[in-house]
Amino acid sequence: MRSRVKSIPYSCPNIAEEDIEAVVNVLRSEFLTQGPVVPEFEVAVSRFTQIPYCVAVSNATAALHLALMAMDVGVGSRVWTSPNSFLASANCARYCGATIDFVDIDSATRNISTIYLREKLEKAKILNELPDVVIPVDYSGLPCDLAEIRDLADEFGFKVLEDASHALGATYQNRPVGSRFADATVFSFHAVKIVTTAEGGMIATSNAEIAERVRLLRSHGMTRDSQIFRNQSDGPWYYEQQCLGYNYRMTELQAALGLSQLRRIEQMHAARMSIADRYDRALSSAPLILPPRKSDRVSSWHLYAVEINLIRARQSRREVFDAMRAAGIGVNVHYIPIHTQPYYHDLGFVASDFANSMEFYGRAISLPMYPTLLASEQNRVIDTLLREI
Ligand SMILES: *Cc1c(COP(=O)(O)O)cnc(C)c1O
Questions:
Q1: Averaged over 227-242, what is the pLDDT?
Q2: Which of 50, 182, 266, 325 could join 160 via S-S bond, C-beta 3.0 to 4.6 A?
Q3: What is the mean pLDDT of residues 368-379?
Q4: Which residue lies with its CA nearest to atom 6 of ligand 1?
Q5: What distance in angstroms lies between residue 211's CA and the mean position of ligand 1's atoms?
Q6: Atom of ligand 1 nearest to the CA of 61
Q7: What is the 8-class DSSP label of residue 83?
Q8: Element (H, E) at 324
């Protein structure tokens, strides 16, 4: 055994007594599913994000899938996203039978490059292969260049599905992410994310039609709303399936946890911001590239991902990573570029297709970042990193 020093994870859910109580209250109540708490959570997220319609689902992967379906993505459609993301950002297009393609990141922001996006759109236009939907991903919680992406969407006629799985609480041009430039925005409430429901996701949109379609799709495509029945009702028990949907519902337990967590989001965000500030100050002269900041947006700081300056550092990324892990510090790497996965290789992608994402992947290390990370623990992370790099 190396030592008994407590190990520090890279992320850690923030569960308070009041969260536990909220979940237990649901267990004692009449409804475990399809009760009043899911709609309450939806309203709370809608208020917080300033996005009119919010629809809760079982996870963000389901949210991405249904949002694409609601945007009429199917066989023959084209969807583009960033390779520097979690698998789900691309898999959702494949669920719909659409073709997927990627646009490389801007090395400065680690988000989809609007320069490459424009280039690719111009080429695609000539070939008559424009995308139907582009999925920008707010990597680490830093919003993408959403205004530029919106302009391109209007010019080239595609829809924007923002994968803000990391970015609940982030702002862009002084407004919550998703509130203005995207056709729909997805948030994740997975255990490591900003607000958790253990597993959970949300589709947020100002488009009433998308919201309505997603609501149908999350529950088998069925409705009990007599206003929209296509057939004559047989009686009070009558329900109607109008399209092929899924069971992607969120439970009342999950919603109660999310609702309770959401009450602390500002406090949790403030804690993440001060941890980021502290890392920035302590690491400013190390052989590292620190996470980008931009004056017109505020990150939710889901991740604090540094890049090793491979020319100035004494050790390789692998060596630094191993040394940190050996010291009980739960560093991680986000992300293995999606297009390098065997499944995507089989679809014809090769590693060198997206060079910036590959370079970023070769240098990236995510340091521990969560609201309850103690200053003493953060000092240990900083000291170990400065010693090893
Ligand atoms: C976590 C994550 C997802 C998937 O979220 P789940 O709720 O786990 O399905 C999708 N995209 C990104 C960028 C993520 O980080």
A1: 95
A2: 182
A3: 97
A4: 60
A5: 20
A6: 9
A7: S
A8: helix 317-326
Residue 266 buriedness (CB in 10 A; 0-12 / 13-18 / 19+) = exposed
Kindly list the strands in the beta sheet with 184-188, ordered across the sheet, starting from the edge strand earlier in the chain: 53-57, 201-205, 184-188, 159-163, 133-135, 78-81, 99-102
CA distance to 14, 65, 66, per residue, from 41 (Å): 18, 21, 19
Virtual torsion, Cα 144, 150, 156, 159, nearest 10 deg: 80
Atom of ligand 1 nearest to the CA of 63: 9
Mutate to test the pocket of ligand 1, among 61, 166, 338 (most ligand atoms within 8 A of CB): 61
Ramachandran assignment for 144, one of left (phi > 0), alpha (psi -120 to 50 degrees), beta (any other): beta
Buried-exposed string 112-131: b where 16+ CB fall within 10 A, e elsewhere: bbbebbbebbeebeeeeebb
Q: Quick one: tokens of 385? A: 């990193």
Asked if 288 contacts 310 with a C-beta cutoff of 8 angstroms, the reply is no
Distance 7 CA to ligand 1 centre (A): 25
Under DSSP, is residue 333 helix (H, G, I), strand (E, B) or coil? coil
Pick the atom of ligand 1 nearest to 59's CA.
7
Q: Is 366 strand, coil or helix?
A: strand
| pTM beyond 0.85, yes or no | yes
CA distances from 370 to 9, 11, 122, 178, 200 (A): 9, 5, 41, 23, 19
The alpha carbons of the chain give a radius of gyration, in whole angstroms, of 22
Centroid of chain to Cα 298: 15
- Structure tokens of 296? 């017109």
Cα–ligand 1 centroid distance for 234 (angstroms): 41
Report the nearest-CA residue for atom 10 of ligand 1. Answer: 88
**Number of helical H runs and strand E runs in the chain:** 13, 15
pLDDT in tens, 168-222: 999 999 999 999 999 999 999 999 999 999 999 999 999 999 999 999 999 999 9
CB 47 within 8 A of CB 101: no
